[in-house]
Write a sequence for this structure.
């Protein structure tokens, strides 16, 4: 008898095909490339031989190349700080919105969503002008007018301000985009909590802070886990804004570069390009992402939240 | 344990008047039921007492204390909701302990008070569980425990039984009533279920469209509804209402209703004349009407109508018979052995004390209209 394809299997085919073609195949391909000495897209010459050379190279870069070390440090700092800003900021905004009048909260939400709705280039351009090192730069002109500084500051590139200022710029630019994601998820989660629980807590004497801490936040734990893991993974791999900031010279080339951008530049920038090396770095990035993702789920006790409820339902 | 007093309390939400000039007294230690259809403003009234809402105008007193401006936590009220509103991430124990922890009560005292109230509500076995692991009835006990553990001055109950299945509702209803009596606590219970109100209340407050329609003990609200709304809202099935026109029978006003003539009592006749009514609404309760095979004898004093059986609903302990009387539906309740067939022609007899007359314009019962007329005549 021929094994029959169930309806579930049948309906999964289109999605599975897409995932196979656009995710699984490229993943396998890039892992493979990471073992080849591919460079300058010279497929005929370099594909075929495999070795661990790229990983060895990365290891020695990590030990001896100060620029690569900067990239790694930037990646760690940028990812953790922006993650904290995104999750905690999103939570703060959602809670503020929750206690806000509906008429006020709608324009407020739209305002915070603007960075996400604005095209990456336009949004980055705004920040380019904001942090511009000339007297015409928004920040410089404000501070000069207020008399805080006498001459324009090269915010992201002045060696005296590195690396903190470059990192701050990266966090600010990405933070404003990322924070709205947490805000939207948390806000809708908060609205799913029955209003009576809030009333009950109020009647029992809970202050707003106690209400948040004991009633509201514990109930959106699942959403916090979700947003944290999701943002962690997307921050590890984000580079669009950072690329433009680096290209336009808003931030220092290495103190303003994360590993994802490093991968991109190594593989695709003009001149000598090293696809094999980039693929190795990308593979490490994926491994780090997977490991961190699992750790996050573990730390936040994801399994505990997935326990089936007991007793009668409904 | 206090008396709760409302003085001309109104609450507006934008242009909507949810509660309109309500003055009420909830006696100390008594069980008062706020009864009304959904949207009548009864829950708003409860939330005003709890302090969740601030009245637009009017004052609220707990005993001698004016609490109008006080936030909920300073009023010391226990509140129980229809959906229980238990915190799903806390155990039953923590749910009950929560109000005490917020007040900074020391843990040993919290423990003894939680155990005490758990014993009272027979939920000691459930203290380690989460709300999601409990049945509806158990959850409502926990909610009640959480409201009682802080020894509130007033217990406010917002449709607490509406989410329970019918059987459980009956048993918890009785239990709740006994509990309130043994604690001697002032309780205010909101419901749209008139049977629940009748069975539990010391006093019923009927509310519709933000206004108090009638206040009184259950018997009174049932026997002497002040207006058409109360008459048709309380009772199951609700009162029958038929339009009648007033005619004169040798100087005495009589009512032509659904093809027959009803001769009102002297008291009512006087009000009809005094108010100059030419129309009235005739109403009676289905359980007060008898179905007869033949017209009632000459001596029968009351309302007699002729109708055709339309539908019979046997309920076991009784039957609900719907008839058409001059094209209008009329319901009667008959004993189980009396089970007429559809199409049968029968006579409906309602003894005089059970027939109610209302002014169609104001909806007022004639006795209530008489009081109003008397009040209007009285010089200030």
């Amino acid at each position: 008898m021929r094994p029959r394809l169930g309806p579930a299997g049948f309906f999964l085919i289109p999605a599975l095909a897409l995932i196979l073609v656009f995710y699984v195949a490229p993943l396998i391909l890039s892992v493979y490339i990471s073992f080849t000495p591919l460079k300058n897209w010279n497929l005929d010459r370099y594909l075929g031989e495999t070795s661990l050379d790229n990983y060895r190279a990365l290891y020695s870069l990590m030990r001896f190349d100060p620029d690569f070390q900067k990239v790694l440090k930037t990646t760690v700092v940028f990812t953790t700080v922006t993650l904290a800003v995104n999750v905690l900021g999103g939570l703060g905004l959602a809670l503020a919105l929750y206690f806000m009048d509906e008429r006020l909260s709608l324009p407020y939400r739209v305002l915070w969503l603007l960075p996400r709705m604005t095209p990456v280039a336009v949004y980055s351009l705004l920040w380019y002008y904001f942090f511009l090192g000339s007297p015409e730069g928004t920040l410089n002109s404000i501070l000069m007018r207020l008399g805080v500084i006498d001459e324009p500051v090269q915010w992201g590139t002045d060696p005296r301000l590195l690396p903190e200022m470059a990192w701050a710029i990266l966090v600010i630019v990405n933070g404003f985009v990322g924070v709205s994601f947490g805000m939207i998820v948390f806000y809708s989660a908060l609205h799913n909590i029955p209003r009576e629980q809030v009333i009950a807590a109020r009647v029992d004497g809970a202050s707003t802070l106690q209400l948040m801490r004991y009633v509201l936040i514990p109930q959106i734990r699942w959403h916090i886990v979700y947003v944290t893991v999701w943002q962690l993974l997307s921050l590890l791999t984000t580079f669009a804004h950072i690329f433009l900031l680096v290209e336009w010279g808003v931030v220092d080339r290495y103190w303003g570069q994360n590993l994802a951008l490093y991968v991109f530049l190594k593989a695709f920038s003009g001149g000598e390009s090293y696809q094999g090396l980039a693929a190795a770095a990308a593979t490490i990035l994926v491994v780090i992402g997977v490991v961190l993702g699992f750790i996050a789920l573990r730390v936040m006790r994801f399994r505990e939240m997935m326990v089936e409820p007991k007793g009668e339902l409904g | 344990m206090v008396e709760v007093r409302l003085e001309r309390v109104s609450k507006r939400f934008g242009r909507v008047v949810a509660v309109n000039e309500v003055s009420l007294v909830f006696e100390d230690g008594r069980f008062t039921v706020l009864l009304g259809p959904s949207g009548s403003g009864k829950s708003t009234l409860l939330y005003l007492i709890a302090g969740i809402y601030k009245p637009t105008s009017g004052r609220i007193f707990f005993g001698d204390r004016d609490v109008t401006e006080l936030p909920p936590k300073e009023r010391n009220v226990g509140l129980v909701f229809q959906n229980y509103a238990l915190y799903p991430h806390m155990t039953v124990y923590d749910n009950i302990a929560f109000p005490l922890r917020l007040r900074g009560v020391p843990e040993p005292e919290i423990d003894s008070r939680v155990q005490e109230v758990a014993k009272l509500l027979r939920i000691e076995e459930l203290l380690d569980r989460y709300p999601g692991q409990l049945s509806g009835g158990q959850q409502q006990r926990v909610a009640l425990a959480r409201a009682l553990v802080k020894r509130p001055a007033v217990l406010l109950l917002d449709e607490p039984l509406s989410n329970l299945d019918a059987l459980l509702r009956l048993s918890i209803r009785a239990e709740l009533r006994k509990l309130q009596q043994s604690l001697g606590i002032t309780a205010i219970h909101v419901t749209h279920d008139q049977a629940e109100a009748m069975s539990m209340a010391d006093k019923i407050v009927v509310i519709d469209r933000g206004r108090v329609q009638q206040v009184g003990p259950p018997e009174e609200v049932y026997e002497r509804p002040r207006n058409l709304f109360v008459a048709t809202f309380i009772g199951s099935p609700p009162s029958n209402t038929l339009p009648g026109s007033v005619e004169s029978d040798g100087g005495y006003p009589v009512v032509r209703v659904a093809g027959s003539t009803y001769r009102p009592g002297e008291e009512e006749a006087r009000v009809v004349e005094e108010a100059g009514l030419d129309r009235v609404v005739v109403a009676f309760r289905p359980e007060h009407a008898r179905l007869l095979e033949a017209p009632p004898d000459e001596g029968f004093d009351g309302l007699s109508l002729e109708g055709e059986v339309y539908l019979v609903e046997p309920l076991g302990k009784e039957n609900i018979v719907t008839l058409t009387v001059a094209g209008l539906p009329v319901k009667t309740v008959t004993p189980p052995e009396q089970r007429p067939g559809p199409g049968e022609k029968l006579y409906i007899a309602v003894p005089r004390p059970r027939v109610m007359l209302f002014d169609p314009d104001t909806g007022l019962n004639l006795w209530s209209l008489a009081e109003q007329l008397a009040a209007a005549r009285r010089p200030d």
